[in-house]
Amino acid sequence: MLIFLSSCDDKSDFNQYKSIENASWEANKKVLFEFVVKDTVSPKNLFINIRNNNEYSYSNLYLITALSFPNGTIIVDTLQYEMADSKGRFLGEGFTEIKENKLFYKEKKIFPVSGTYRLNIRQAMRKNGEINPIPFLEGIIDVGFSIEKLD
Hints:
Number of helices: 1
Distance between the termini: 23 Å
Strand order of the largest sheet: 1-10-4-7
Order of helices and strands: HEEEEEEEEEE
Number of strands: 10
Shape: globular
Oligomer: single chain
Strand content: over 45%
């Protein structure tokens, strides 16, 4: 059984989740992931993983990411993900009120430098017509980040 469980995770180079206190993601509060890259040749798929519950009241999710390289380079991205279908049903996996979404962040990414990388993720949700972010984004339970080898 132990061999089976470890073989299921052969694709994963990195997989970590951070819990959001009270399932309420504060505006401008960054979720930080640190990971070490040794392989600078093989392409990888990078995912942002979001667990939400029924308290999440939006059909989409805007995130701002900052990926810091060991050499000081920083790449900032603004991302939008669909969280619900046209009928308002949450996307993602799960049979209970908690849904897990595995969202593409970067596809076939080759890390050019070995060393320690840092990924900061923050929510960038705003109400229509407003400039300021939503102070507390309710319904986000966990934020995760994973790196997978390609087949």
